[in-house]
From TrEMBL:
It is an enzyme of class 2 (transferase). Its EC number is 2.7.8.5. Its main location: mitochondrion. Pathway: Phospholipid metabolism; phosphatidylglycerol biosynthesis; phosphatidylglycerol from CDP-diacylglycerol: step 1/2. This is CDP-diacylglycerol--glycerol-3-phosphate 3-phosphatidyltransferase. It is found in: Mitochondrion. It comes from Microtus ochrogaster.
Length: 553
């Protein structure tokens, strides 16, 4: 234990949460040693920049040792279940989607066949004809549920962001009001309002700009026991020509229950849309911007963490009953009787990031994954908005794995051609990209860290996540997929959720590999010549303003 004890304060604090865990303690010791070597190589960077975002008291307590005698004990990423619930599933229940059209058709099909629940969390719902199709599907399914001769009690819960969902005269609220008015007992619309937008700030910041303070950014779409995790919103471009990532988890009841409870928890601390287009708080809940901020955030933290803790406890009990109960039949007998679940070859870990509520699980897991990626490993990381936090940047530049980072070229940036100040945002991203590329070159890391720009005529780019290839492997064994962009906003301002998928299934690994290849095939490698191209000249005022505003977009 000498090595971990000699590590930075963060590791000592985390080790304090892990009594009797020598395996995990050794892991944290290796992380500490590796970070120490990184600091030695790059003395001019402060270690506090690397570690400061992690200093949080909210890491869940560890209550049981890892299991090495059952199927879940075989992969190297089992430490993630010390923080969040672990869901073991057969890989045949996981399908990777590739296009916006496929995503849209699946959404409509799942709504039409849902019998018990539809739960959708998104930044906003658009106002065009395609979005109206979704609303019409919801209305039709609710109507059929009412008229069904069989027992059917379909409930619809929708979670959106308050500021984005209220923008303009025709907005997400106006799209959903007819549903709420017609089915008041079956439809719930929750609008999350960040506690950081309050008082004079709320009065002075105009519409659209107020969205920079903080948002509900989770994207999860759930139908009975089927779940779609994505970075895509419910808007026409995300159904047609805005490239994102999507994974479909079929017949995964425990995962569907978890995300239902998570959306319910965030919904409970959000404003509730009423049939007359007013909003109100849930009885007994502190108001997000009129009430005491600290009291609201404490209540929200407890509400969300209770979901994570209870799901983690349930999964531990289910695991024990499935693999360790003496009262169970032998595995052969149970399998013959149809009582024993097939041994999973894929594991799903929900990673939640809600810094306003002091919940930083996604950040901890992401930084640990980047830190532990060994020499010879390859990390393919993609984001539609290249604006890495300082901690992530330090890890990319200071660790030993190879990185290929896919980002949007200016022409496929979602803000390209926008009116007003927003039109300068693609240029700001170019400036940030050039600064990072210059640092890669100054450190002589061009062979290890490569930037690539996605381009596709008539399309925009919004994909985010990473794929991890272990040393010597041609296929990824882990992917992160969901809403975070790896930037300051994702870590510090917004509510985010993604899943880590760890798989030993070669078929699923090939699906993930194909997804990665399809995205990267539409990209070009960034070099110094990239920034000499027409349209890449960043105006002086953009360069001066970018450091001041980069934490807001």
């Amino acid at each position: 234990m000498a090595a971990p004890a000699a590590g930075p304060v963060f590791w000592r604090r985390l080790l304090g949460l892990l009594p009797g865990r020598p395996g995990l303690a050794a892991l944290l010791g290796r992380l500490s040693d590796r970070l120490g070597r990184s600091r030695e190589r790059r003395r001019r960077r402060s270690p506090w920049l690397l570690l400061a975002p992690l200093l949080s008291p909210t890491v869940p307590q560890i209550t049981s040792p890892p299991c090495c005698l059952c199927p879940e004990g075989v992969h190297r990423f089992q430490w993630i279940r010390n923080l969040v619930p672990e869901f073991g599933v057969p890989s045949s229940h996981v399908r990777v989607l590739s296009s916006p059209a496929e995503f849209f058709e699946l959404l409509k099909g799942q709504i039409k066949t849902a019998k018990r629940r539809v739960v959708m969390a998104s930044l906003y719902l658009g106002t065009g004809p395609l979005e109206q199709e979704l609303v019409d599907c919801l209305e039709s399914s609710l109507e059929k549920s009412l008229q069904s001769k069989f027992s059917s009690d379909l409930k619809v819960s929708i979670l959106l962001d308050f500021t984005r969902g209220s923008r303009g005269r025709k907005n997400s609220r106006s799209m959903l009001l007819p549903l709420l008015q017609r089915f008041p007992e079956r439809v719930r619309v929750s609008l999350f309002h960040t506690p950081n937008l309050r008082g004079l700030l709320r009065l002075l910041i105009p519409e659209r700009f107020n969205e920079t303070i903080g948002l509900q950014h989770i994207k999860v779409y759930l139908f009975d026991n089927n779940v779609i995790l994505s970075g895509a919103n419910l808007s026409d471009s995300y159904f047609t020509n805005r490239q994102d990532r999507y994974v479909f988890l079929q017949d995964c009841a425990e995962i569907a229950d978890f995300f239902t409870e998570l959306v319910d928890a965030v919904g409970d601390v959000s404003l509730q849309l009423q049939g007359d287009d007013t909003v109100d708080v849930v009885d007994g809940m502190v108001h997000p911007y009129k009430g005491d901020r600290a009291a609201y955030c404490r209540a929200a933290n407890k509400r969300v963490m209770d979901v994570i803790h209870s799901a983690r406890t349930r999964q531990q009990m289910l695991h024990a009953q499935t693999f360790h109960s003496d009262s169970l039949l032998s595995q052969e007998e149970a399998a013959a009787a149809g009582d024993r679940r097939p041994a999973p070859d894929t594991w799903i870990y929900p990673l939640i990031q809600m810094k306003p509520f002091e919940i930083q699980i996604d950040e901890i897991v992401t930084e640990t994954l980047l830190t532990e990626a060994e020499r010879g490993a390859k990390v393919f990381l993609t984001t539609g908005y290249f604006n890495l936090t300082q901690a992530y940047m330090d890890l990319v530049l200071g660790t030993r794995a190879e990185y290929q980072i896919l980002l949007a070229s200016p022409e496929v940036n979602g803000f390209f051609g926008a009116k007003g100040v927003a039109g300068a945002i693609p240029a700001a991203y170019v400036h940030i990209e050039r600064q990072f590329y210059s640092e890669v070159c100054s450190l002589g890391q061009q062979d290890r860290v490569q930037l690539q720009e996605y381009w596709r005529k008539g399309w925009t780019f919004h994909a985010k996540g990473l794929w991890l290839y272990l040393a010597g492997s041609s296929l990824p064994c882990l992917t992160l997929i969901g809403s975070p962009n790896f930037g300051y906003r994702s870590v510090h301002r917004d509510l985010e959720a993604q899943i880590a998928i760890v798989t030993e299934s070669r078929a699923l690994q090939q699906q993930l590999h194909q997804e990665q290849e399809q995205l990267y095939l539409r990209s070009g490698v960034v070099s110094s010549a990239t920034f000499e191209q027409p349209g890449r000249q960043v105006k002086l005022w953009v360069k001066m303003v970018t450091p001041l505003i980069k934490n807001f977009f």
